[in-house]
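Appendix B: a complete holo record

For completeness, this appendix reproduces one full record from the ligand-bound portion of the collection. The bound molecule is manganese (II) ion. The inputs are the chain sequence and the ligand SMILES; the output is the full three-dimensional arrangement of the complex, encoded as structure tokens. No fields have been trimmed.
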Amino acid sequence: MAEELTPETPDEAEEPIKQRKNGLYPGVSDELAENMKSGWADTELTGLAPIPQAAETAARRAALSARFPGERLVVPAGNLKTRSNDTEYAFRASTEYAYLTGDQTHDGVLVLEPVADGHEATIYLLPRSDRENGEFWLDGMGELWVGRRHSLAEAEQLLGIPAKDVRELTAALKEATGPVRAVRGHDAGIEAALTDKVTAERDEELRVFLSEARLVKDAFEIAELEKACASTARGFEDVVKVLDKAEATSERYIEGTFFLRARVEGNDVGYGSICAAGPHACTLHWVRNDGAVRPGDLLLLDAGVETTELYTADVTRTLPINGRYTDVQRKIYDAVYEAQEAGIAAVKPGAAYRDFHDAAQRVLAEKLVEWGLVEGPVERVLELGLQRRWTLHGTGHMLGMDVHDCAAARTEAYVDTTLEPGMCLTVEPGLYFQADDLTVPEEYRGIGVRIEDDILVTEDGNRNLSDQLPRRSDEVEAWMAALKG
Ligand SMILES: [Mn+2]
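The structure of the chain with manganese (II) ion bound, as generated:
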């Protein structure tokens, strides 16, 4: 990639572009600087249709407004993070900001200003680059380097929110009076401007509200989750088709294959893909993905496509790399399948959130007792939690814009609540026999199995959004055989 023109002295790097003199840039003559100011067509767009979720984002802002009357609410998108010099890590807008605006621009900030009957929303954004002062081609954030941005007027049409220049926001916030709350952790500059106006406790209440607001998904969100699952299923098919190439290289081939699908059809992967072959399946968050892929072993693939509107799937399949489970692999796999079936059946409106976990854990505990790995009865095992040596993790979590969605919700609103239509959660029991676990028969060691699907609570039960992918062991084998041809 090309390098920026850099100012001659480090001090000048600190100055905003408009205070720099063009002549100070090496190789930029006054004549060139003057020449670059003009001769550009007007590309302003008019009559733009609003984004598809504009009505939903307005309703979300209205709910937020009703919860915090009379208070100024500040929700930043976040800033770019430098990787080194003039390169940045890939940017992903904060979930709170994208949820409330539909926008994903770095440095954006949503502000709800209290007015007599609620709030007035304003979105603060970087405007188009100035051509007059050379910013557009001399500054690293100039549009010539990073691409055309929407003008503030264009952003207003798209988002349905009045837009202002974000470079004016810090000063405005410093001058503002009255109670303020901000979402923390995304924009240090905004937080510094508010430092003597906000408290951690009050800001946390805002974060909790925005987490709980996302527990029940609206129609737009459900459609996005459906898209995420459909893309994810295609990504899993891509992986099965190239398992021979992964055998010749490493787990990285699987990671790269799934990532291609995620980038082509969506925004990204929703979390680091877990491409765990053989005993790596027993490492719950195996994301190094640098191991060998061997026929005869299992591949535990836990991956999800994040859509362009930032909703992610979270799906796991545990596949026999050579297309056929061994007897012991099948025995363990089928036990996890049975546990997942019991878990999914417990997902319905009015059920306690904990029910699906309990249902799946009971099946797994029964199997472990049956196999002689732990002494029964099953009630004793469950009471003491002895099955957890091999089940290791909870059976699921809320899913949405974050893979572990609604994570700031209060216990009473999440794990102690009852399920409602529109909630979406994963059901993902597993059994993991570590390679060095001397308490299990040798043939079990190094086998890890998880099966994970994304389950939407409906009016009369549930719908499995990721059911494009087979789960039963014989159906997995038939599916793989058909894909491999
Ligand atoms: Mn999960």
